[in-house]
Amino acid sequence: MKFKKHVFICTNQKDAPKKSCGTERGLELVETFKQELTKHGLQKDIRAQRAGCLDACAFGPSLVVYPEGTYYGNVQPSDVAEIVESHLINDQPVERLKLNF
Amino acid sequence: MKFKKHVFICTNQKDAPKKSCGTERGLELVETFKQELTKHGLQKDIRAQRAGCLDACAFGPSLVVYPEGTYYGNVQPSDVAEIVESHLINDQPVERLKLNF
Question: I need a labelling partner for A34 at 20 to 30 A (CA). Which of A27, A63, A65, B24 fits?
């Protein structure tokens, strides 16, 4: 496995007036994840990156963490530090943001 | 796990003259995967979708299959049916295209 954890963040932009993760700050989330991982020196072990539609539009901004396949919804930049520390580093998913897929 | 398998295909486009997966037919790969999955009636169980840079630019067009985290490189549309049947349906990775990460 190239990465210990691999985070895919939806940055899909649909045409207005449809709501979509991209217009709901997906790219800001990607940048915040990258900064947080670098802060912990984890940028080579854990990757956070852009992705197209994750099929969870109703819950956006959404993301998925692999290899476990945990989906999160309504994620805000202020939630990123908690996801990184709790889930990505300590393997404790953040229950309040988890989607029950 | 929302999907039995989740395939992320790099469609990143760098500025010319740099080579990148997107300009090397990443989007064509996404469409070919979707068609192949639909042909097998698997479009709800297995998802193939666009992603940003997977950090395997030198081997593009590249993609990764989760939850196992198998990377493939130099994938052409003519390889997609084999990846779907061998790996996604029968759990036998296509060794000749696998990247040893």
Answer: B24
Does A38 contact chain B (CB < 8 Å)?
no
CA distances from A11 to A46, A51, B83 (A): 19, 6, 26
Cβ neighbours of residue B45 under 8 Å, at least 6 residues apart?
B3, B4, B5
Q: What is the ipTM of this complex?
A: 0.94
Rounded to two decimals, the pTM is 0.95
Q: What is the CATH number of the domain that holds A67?
A: 3.40.30.10
Provide the domain count of chain A: 1
In A14-100, where does DSSP find H-type helix?
A: 26-39, 80-82
A11 touches chain B (CB under 8 A): yes
CA A61 to chain B, closest CA, distance in angstroms equals 16
Is residue A3 left, alpha or beta, with left meaning phi > 0 and alpha meaning psi from -120 to 50? beta
What string of pLDDT tens digits covers the 101 residues of chain A?
Answer: 999 999 999 999 877 667 778 776 788 999 999 999 999 999 999 999 999 999 998 998 999 999 999 999 999 999 999 999 999 999 999 999 999 98
